[in-house]
Specification:
By secondary structure, the chain is α/β, with parallel strands linked by helices. The chain is built from 7 helices and 6 strands, in the order βααβαβαααβαββ. A 6-stranded mixed β-sheet has the order 3-2-4-1-5-6, with helices on both faces.
Amino acid sequence: MPDGVTRVLLTRHGQTVANVEGRFCGHSETELTARGRAQAMALGRRLAGEVLAACYSSDLSRAVETALLALGERGIGPVPLPALRERHYGAWEMELETEVQRRDPLRFAQMEAEDPAWVPPGGESLAAVRERASAALREIAARHTGETVLVVAHGTMLNCLVAGLLGLPETHVFRFEVGHCTLFEVEERRGRFVVARMNDSAHLDGLA
């Protein structure tokens, strides 16, 4: 790695019970499924050859558990950062998507249309998520110049972060996939962030 280049490996937590049930789960807690734990361990095997200076995770348990499983016996633990949390869904937290669609079809359709003006009732805008995610990335990179770090976060949060780095408008935040425990890689070079890898899932091939 060239001198002064900082690598930030970004990943989403493993599959959760709320994911399987189809619930809006932002700042609420939900457990990893057996598949989610297997995904996290597969990520750990993928990262076995990486020298990690540190690991940061959302402070929500699904991200912390994913980080712990991926880190294994490395001797470092995840540093929890609330700024890495998922989007807050306000009144929709832990509601079934099908129930929200039935009860509030206009707002649900606005969300599906990727209208940047859409905000879940009492929740967080895409702009707000993007701002805190970007600030967290800059803070982490500044702490680890020339090193490699792992960041474990959430789907929409990573969509917002990577879309911002790519210069995509808020209408196009969800135009790429963020799978459970897939790898994104961002390099910081002389103050500029470059996306070097997106949604790499090779290590998850063959999982039941």
